[in-house]
Amino acid sequence: MSPTARRPVIALDGPAGAGKSTVARRVAAALGYVLVDTGALYRAVALACARAGVSWDDPDGVGAQAEALVARGAIALVPAPDGLRVELDRADVTREIRSPENSLGASRVSAVPRVRAALLEMQRASLRGGGAVMEGRDIGTVVAPDAEVKLFVTASPEVRARRRHDELVARGERPSYEDTLRDVLARDRADESRAIAPLVPAADAEVLDTSSMSLDEVVDAIVARARAAGG
Quick one: which of 199, 24, 174 has its CA closest to 106? Predict the structure, then answer.
């Protein structure tokens, strides 16, 4: 690759609990790429709505809240030693936005067209220079349809629930595996059935089933694809 060549954009889509955030963080670190966690943006909007007393099921209220957040630059993804810090009005909300309840809220607000429109340009702007890893639900289909590397990272619901359960336990929470599995299945239904940008693999995306793969194996596979694309 020549010094002036644009490094590829890596688009990682997939369902809740597939481990995309961890994988994206590791891939970005391995390649020296910018990490863009779109799910964190929607989670931040959901949290801001909850704090403001705006129902996640109120599309007008949620849309107005998202537009106001973007207009004042209230949401920030800040590089941190452990990956990425999410700030809402300059306060660190990295842990708070990932509660099971707020995760379901993120799925609801992400179905609102005004929310998606408000965040779309913010997401695209971060990709213009290339050399970026972006993960979410509609990156390869809507946000970055021209991404050089597109992967739909998935695993069985049971495996995803186990990974999510272990993550919550490691953070000091005590959910049951059964409740976590129900949350994963509920998130799948919400993401797959929404009218705007439903969760589906891009037509030209490679489906990567990680059910029987270790984290290192998944990261190595994606890094190899990026390097083959000029990264």
Answer: 199
Q: What is the CATH number of the domain that holds 36?
A: 3.40.50.300
Q: What is the pLDDT of residues 134-193, one digit of tens each?
A: 998 889 999 999 999 999 999 999 999 999 999 889 989 899 999 999 999 998 998 888
Q: Are 86 and 102 in contact (CB under 8 A)?
A: no
DSSP 8-class letter at 139: I
What band does 64 get if pLDDT is binned at 50, 70 and 90? very high
Q: Are 105 and 49 in contact (CB under 8 A)?
A: yes
How many domains, the chain? Answer: 1
Q: Which amino acid is at 104?
A: L
Residue 132 sits in which domain range?
9-228
Residue 96 placed within a domain: yes
Note whether residue 91 is domain-resident. yes
